[in-house]
């Protein structure tokens, strides 16, 4: 059985790499449907979601306690929805858009009620940003949380910040 790494590198995964071995590897960002499929393959084959959940529940509260508000939080990539035919209720590897973020905000709020949280969301898919915005609009208890939306990859964001000679400090960064 091939491992996740080989599949994600395209050795045996047709959605990441064209069947012809002569074809050069393409960025997943060239085809956002493949980007979403690849992410879900990753979730199906990894314990990322469960590990992140455990981290948020067990370790994050102690880390938060060592910081002083206001907090600057960044979410980089991974605001993806379930593939067709699956739902978070039927498949634990299938997260809701922004689900982990809302759990993190809850932990921060428990330690620092009323603190201002600045949350930068970096995501290359406009559709995923839209879904995340819908989730935020439906959520309660998000007062004093400021969202800044960046439709770009983490590398594009970093390059842009460097080109603009902008510096930014974050207290917490999480990404998939």
UniProtKB/TrEMBL annotation:
InterPro entries in UniProt: SAM-dependent_MTases_sf
Protein name (Swiss-Prot/TrEMBL): Histamine N-methyltransferase
Species name: Lonchura striata
Gene expressing this chain: HNMT
């Amino acid at each position: 059985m091939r491992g996740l790494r080989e599949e994600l590198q395209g050795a045996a995964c047709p959605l990441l790499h064209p069947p012809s071995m002569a074809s050069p590897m393409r960025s997943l960002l060239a085809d956002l449907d493949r980007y979403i499929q690849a992410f879900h393959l990753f979730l199906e084959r990894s314990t990322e979601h469960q590990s992140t959940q455990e981290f948020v529940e067990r370790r994050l509260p102690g880390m938060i306690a060592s910081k002083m508000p206001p907090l600057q939080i960044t979410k980089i990539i991974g605001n993806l929805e379930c593939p067709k035919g699956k739902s978070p209720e039927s498949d634990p590897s299938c997260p809701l858009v922004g689900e982990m973020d809302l759990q993190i905000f809850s932990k921060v709020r428990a330690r620092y009620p009323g603190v201002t949280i600045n949350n930068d969301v970096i995501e290359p898919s406009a559709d995923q940003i839209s879904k995340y915005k819908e989730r935020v609009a439906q959520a309660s208890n998000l007062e004093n949380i400021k969202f800044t939306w960046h439709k770009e990859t983490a590398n594009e964001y970093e390059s842009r910040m460097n080109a603009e000679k902008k510096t930014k400090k974050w207290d917490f960064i999480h990404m998939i």
